[in-house]
Write a structure and sequence with these properties.
2 copies of one chain form a homodimer.
Chain A (H helix, E strand, L loop, with lengths): L5 E2 L2 E5 L3 E2 L5 E2 L2 E8 L9 E5 L11 E2 L12 E2 L4 E2 L4 E5 L14 E2 L4 E2 L9 H14 L5 E6 L1 H12 L4 E7 L7 H15 L16 H15 L2 H7 L17 H14 L4 H13 L2 H5 L2 H5 L5 E7 L7 H13 L3 E7 L7 H4 L1 H13 L1
Parallel strand pairs in A: 1-7, 6-10, 6-13, 8-9, 13-14, 14-15, 15-16
Antiparallel strand pairs in A: 2-5, 3-4, 5-10, 11-12
């Protein structure tokens, strides 16, 4: 606690070609990353925190350029859940993202224009393989991985893919695979982007952004991040002013969604939204390995799994599916369902409850 | 059962001006309606069935022009839940609709062009008042009202607004008012229409329809009509073919939604979608009357309320709210929550279970 800490986003340039799950090859990958705290001599105090759908490398502290606080600043810092007095915390932007790591808005070295839809489709496995290059570069030999939502999927894949490296895995508000309803929401969100008149088959970087479509995508997302309890508590059926008797904004919940849509289009690339949601939809270690037990077979990690009672996007039932598979595989697993009225958003909001549990797990 | 019955859609023309809840006045309202069975001499065997968001007057039988079967044909006919051997069933298209009743696509007599957004905003109360003109025209003196989803809202309003006329009220998969989450889904659906490049402030009747926006609206709707159980059962995470590794259709659930969106744009008017969803959002007899008990105070109706276990758009909790208010008001009320894996769609699908309950209620 105490002094204000500032963060800096660095870029690691990977020159060697990376073969993706699709078989396609990407050369010249930039990885944007931040670190907090100090790596110890044994290089075994590292925690890799993994961001969700629209996150960035900027997980904690105030950013030295923008002054903005990181997305998990409540959880990362001196004395916090991920304690920078003890741990070396690493956060990187995912492959396909739009916050410094190579993605569809990056320049394709073959054409000197943005990739747009020539960017290869990426998977959670590809995202993790690129993170691994950063971890190798930093010389890390044992690692703790932690993430919520899509960050949790990356953490699952880390423990499957790099069983010797991962000593602890923290999965929050996540699932081994998206259910059909989750795919459906992503499909409609992508459809809104793809059918926006400005989309131009992804080549909108010289013109108008497909901001209507991206805004709708974000609004759909926000409905799934909240829950009816949270919406009731935040907005109820309250009017913003009085009934407009036209098609303007009537209810507070409409105003909230509209605002969320508007701020999002200024900060996120529509093509990245397509690629990253597709990576989430595709992720399915159960299909990939035959079963979760088989997938986790070689893992030496301890696991902490946290779900939230009102999360209907990544439900407690889905968390329990992971827990049960880990128990069957004789892994060391702790599971907590936290009561919350915040829906899926809880993993970004309920930091006090999470802090106690994570601290105790990391001590153990 | 037995012979195939054919239906015919008739138009009742209302010349007298109708003052809406907003204070605006509509003249020359057409009401499209169908009837099934025969009105008895006492004119007290009528059942008014009330359609949901995108329904029409064509509730039962094969339509004599199109050959299409009505939306509640499983429930209306000889020997069925609404038995045409005993009852005279009436169904009409709602005000604001696009199936024959006056709505935004109708010709504005003042301009000789479609109303488009010059059509006044309508409410559930207005919809019911217009239906009342049809019921008066038919000379009906006692009536049973029945509806699911938005049809249930109309049935609620019938029993509040015309307490002497309504002798029985059947409310299926409905709520006295939409919750914040429901408003949120409607708001995003409307936003998709309003921001479609073809929308042209509602004046698209001479050009291209805002079909992308309307299609997205419908897809969002369908997600809320199903439930995760239904989606899992219907689609799971099955691929349509194999992963496309592009942004085409990958999963069966995507294909289903895309199809639902596509067929909808050919059968529904985008402006009607705006007006009718707004009517649903606004409806709030609790706010209007201070409480539901107060709203139902003068009702002499018996009530049957049916909810479905997996309906997350109009939940059992919401049905119970109505039930509790009716009990407090000393009304005759029966309530059943039916187990179903069909989500909100259950009211259109689970006809066998509903038939038993409705028949028994109508006998009582």
């Amino acid at each position: 606690m105490g002094n204000i800490e500032f963060s800096e986003t660095k870029i690691l340039k990977i020159k060697e070609p990376t073969t993706l799950k699709s078989g396609k090859v990407l050369s010249n990958i930039d990885i944007a990353y931040e670190t907090y705290g100090k790596l110890n001599e044994n290089k075994d105090n590292a925690i890799l925190v993994l961001h969700a759908l629209t996150g960035s490398a900027h997980a904690a502290y105030k950013h030295k350029d923008t002054g903005k606080v990181g997305w998990w600043d409540d959880m990362i810092g001196s004395g916090k859940a991920f304690d920078t007095d003890k741990y070396f915390i690493i956060s990187s932007n995912v492959l396909g993202g739009c916050y410094g790591t190579t993605g569809p808005a990056s320049i394709n070295p073959e054409t000197n224009k943005p990739y747009a839809l020539d960017f290869p489709v990426i998977t959670i496995e590809d995202i993790v393989d690129v993170q691994k290059k950063l971890i190798d570069y930093l010389g890390i030999e044992k690692i703790i991985v932690a993430g919520g939502s899509m960050g949790g999927m990356q953490a699952i894949e880390w423990s499957i893919r790099y069983p010797k490296l991962v000593k602890s895995t923290i999965l929050i508000a996540t699932s081994a695979r998206l259910n059909a309803q989750g795919i459906a929401f992503n499909a409609v969100a992508r459809n809104a982007i793809l059918t926006d008149n400005n989309f131009n088959n992804g080549n909108y970087y010289d013109g108008e952004n497909p901001s209507s479509g991206l805004s709708i995508a974000r609004m759909i997302g926000h409905i799934t991040y909240l829950c009816e309890e949270a919406m009731y508590k935040k907005f109820g059926r309250e009017f913003k002013d009085s009934p407009s008797f036209d098609f303007g904004i009537d209810f507070q919940v409409e105003s909230y969604l509209q605002h969320q849509g508007q701020v999002f289009v200024d900060r996120f690339d529509a093509n990245s939204y397509l690629y990253i949601t597709k990576a989430v939809d595709y992720y399915d270690p159960i299909k990939e390995h035959g079963s979760l037990e088989e997938a986790f077979k070689n893992s030496n990690s301890r696991f902490l799994i946290i779900s939230f009672s009102t999360d209907w996007l990544f439900t407690t039932t889905q968390s329990k599916q992971i827990v049960n598979s880990l128990i069957k595989s004789n892994k060391d697993v702790s599971f907590v369902e936290l009561e919350s009225k915040c829906g899926h958003d809880a993993f970004l909001l309920e930091f006090e409850k999470q802090t106690k549990i994570i601290k105790s797990f990391l001590k153990g």
